[in-house]
Amino acid sequence: MNPYVLLAGAILSELLGTTALKLSDGFSQPVPSLGVVVGYGIAFYLVSLTLEELPIGVVYGTWAALGVVGVATIGIVLFDEPIDIAGVIGILLIIGGVYCVNVVSQMSAH
User: Exposure check for the chain: N or C terminus, fewer CB within 10 A?
Assistant: First the structure.
């Protein structure tokens, strides 16, 4: 399977796990707490598969960066967390960095 598809699955699983973490209320809510364990478990498994084909710096950098962008977006949309122009610029810079590492640089296996 395409390692970038696996990485996308890992990122989505992490986003679900992190959202569940917010909803778990300090692990006092059983269903969201289970979502944390399942989401992160799937995420780490998919990352491990991705690492069989892509360099660790590319995989972890992309996973972490897009996780930050995704969680920030979820916070804004679902939890009414504020964002300002500096936050928007920061998120755009993160996305630009991911693009550079994965498309422009020679770090990734093209």
Answer: C
